[in-house]
Amino acid sequence: MAARGVGLWSRLPLCTQRSRVLRPIHRLLSRPGTVAADARREQQSAGSTETGSEDRTPKKRFSEVQKERREQAQRTILILCPNKISEKKFLKYLSQHGPINNHFFFESFGLYAVVEFCQKESVASLQNLTRTPSMGTEAAIPFRSRFFNLKLKNSSDQTSEQSCIPCNQSPPSSKKLFELLCDAESIDDQLNTLLKEFQLTEENTKLRYLTCSLIEDIAAAYFPDCAVRPFGSSVNSFGKLGCDLDMFLDLDEIGNFNAHKTSGNFLMEFQVKNVPSERIATQKILSVIGECLDNFGPGCVGVQKILNARCPLVRFSHQASGFQCDLTTNNRIALKSSELLYIYGALDSRVRAMVFSIRCWARAHSLTSSIPGAWITNFSLTMMVIFFLQRRSPPILPTLDYLKTLADAEDKCIIEGHNCTFICDLNRIKPSKNTETLEILLKEFFEFFGNFAFNKNSINIRQGREQNKPEPSPLHIQNPFETSLNISKNVSQSQLQKFVDLARESAWILHQEDKDHPSPSSNQPWGLAALLLPSVAKSMSRDKKKRKKPASERIKNLLESIKSSPENPTNTNGKRTYT
User: What is the Cβ-side half-sphere exposure of residue 91, based on CA atoms within 13 angstroms?
Assistant: First the structure.
């Protein structure tokens, strides 16, 4: 599609991160030539890769990435700095304890520095020379953490010897996003631009793993060999700037180091306390950890213990990083789901671009919400995109059952009786031969689900095909591992119908653009930008009141007429053929 003109917009949709109490706007500060700046440039160049292009670079396993990130976080510290500080003198001071691998600054509730040493011993060396602050009339609770407060002995000696380059750590404003989308060369370019602007940066990812590592330090006081692992959006490659930080307390490794190496006639076991059920054990553990975070955790505020939920959790804000955190325990199926999404996101560059754009579209039209309710969730939308890409010809993504057939003995994984086995080595999965553009995929996605038989069919990414719904829920999407569960059971009929209506309307808008070819100087929103305008949903609602025939039926009939038109031939599978 030809380049389009840039319009001026006064009222734009809200499709940025949700606002929360105690959540700051981040600004990253780094210098040219620093590791942070180099990593950012590398990531930006990677984001501009041509759609569907094959990357021959060997891809790391999810477990390898997790291990490297965790080790990286364990030798990293977080420091609250004075507002005016000499970066050169700051680094020279810290280098007394060992060489520094990289660092960056960001603004939250003050100026913070994230510093990664080359060895963990450097962290211990710094801790040994750090004192507990004198609080005057108040009393400090001593805690040996990796979260420090740096004070100046002589503020006049500190000068800004090296200026810093600010870089936003939050999504672009709605106005800025629209300008970027309207200035793009094509719809493909629009989707890739949105992905680049919203995806987690290298620095934000490091800060997420560091936050988990700091919480692990607190939990280790009770469970010395535990691990606190991030899961969900923070690690599955589909997280956007500003998303929550989900983490779980992994206790499975405690006491298992030498379980298979015992010899002789004796077996030694730990003396432990017994409780009636696994759920009660989880509640007791999280209750204690919640108390520790509330009373002893530096920077942990607004702690809530939500222990009677289906999945008990502790919710809190980590004030320094600005993350809203949810802590559960032994949630290994959730981590396995994160790994599966990581694999799907890494197999083809179009996957993440599609997911980010569909999520943004849904958010712009209030199909999703940060408040629990009858709305479609981001996870459900991601499953729908994956299912759609499995249904292409040829498929862009393999089914979960196919990934299971590629697995070897090392990949076998049974969690709580559920078979979570699939191949973990990305390099053994053949890339798709499908070469469809993002523009075609976006149009076809809206057509596919605008005409999907939700009343009788279920979405199943294990087999990559529709199945009869096993229950009467309006929307049924099978949980990929706990197959008896419906991940969209909460969605109401009215919300599903709203999704279908908007999908049909969006498909119609894109088809009309193909037909009308708006002038580049028309100053009209086009492509993805047009789909994000709230007027789409509002005009549809007004039309329903004015006309006897529902808008969804009118659009469905129009799409059917387009499909049967000689200008838009279909292939034998009923799918449109684009020239």
Answer: 18
